[in-house]
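INTERNAL AUDIT FORM
Audit reference: QA-55
Scope: verify that the stored structure record matches its stored sequence.
Auditor: D.O.
Record contents follow.
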Amino acid sequence: MGAGLQRILKLYGKMIVKDEHGKTVVYVYDYANDKAMLQSEMTKEMTTASEKAKYELFRRQMDSAIAEREKNKNLNDPPF
């Protein structure tokens, strides 16, 4: 699998494509293992772990952004 497809999947999480035989396949990004794979290859446990890792990553990014905003906050700035 190409690096470009992996980057797209990491951003969007899932992509429906047609393979070389014209068959529709679904690729998903496994955030727990940091790689792209076919949705049909993922077990329920793998999907659960991936979703948990995705939201944990999102939470860390939001916490970091909030902390950075608070650090640079000026008391004269509007509250929004």
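Auditor finding: record pair retrieved intact. The chain has two helices and three strands.
Action required: none
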